[in-house]
Design a protein that fits this description.
The chain is α+β, with helices and mostly antiparallel strands and about 90 residues long. α3 links the parallel β1 and β2. The protein has a domain of about 55 residues. A two-stranded parallel sheet has the order 1-2. The chain starts with a helix and ends in an 8-residue tail after the last strand. It is globular, with a radius of gyration of 14 Å. The chain is built from 3 helices and 2 strands.
């Protein structure tokens, strides 16, 4: 697991937030299946920045697939914004 993900998981665990690592061939169906089995009603996602290369874990296509599959859930997509004065 990439170091950045481990840092985020440890941050959440230190705040006593329950964390889970899901496995599956396709991220969107695995996430939605888990959410339905656990009666999740809201999903918060970060939209990945536009880049020439794509990370397979959470690409723009994956975010759109989650939205399409989660018709019975509230999906909130947040964007990463540059601080004021930086572009």
């Amino acid at each position: 697991m990439p170091e950045a993900i481990e840092r985020h998981l440890n941050f959440a665990r230190n705040l006593r937030i329950e964390t889970r690592v899901l496995e599956g061939d396709r991220a969107a169906p695995a996430l939605i299946d888990f959410a339905r089995r656990n009666r999740v009603t809201q999903i918060f996602l970060a939209r990945p920045p536009q880049r020439r290369w794509r990370l397979p874990l959470l690409s723009r296509d994956t975010v759109q697939s989650i939205v399409n599959l989660a018709k019975d859930m509230q999906v909130v997509i947040v964007s990463d914004r540059a601080p004021a004065g930086r572009a």
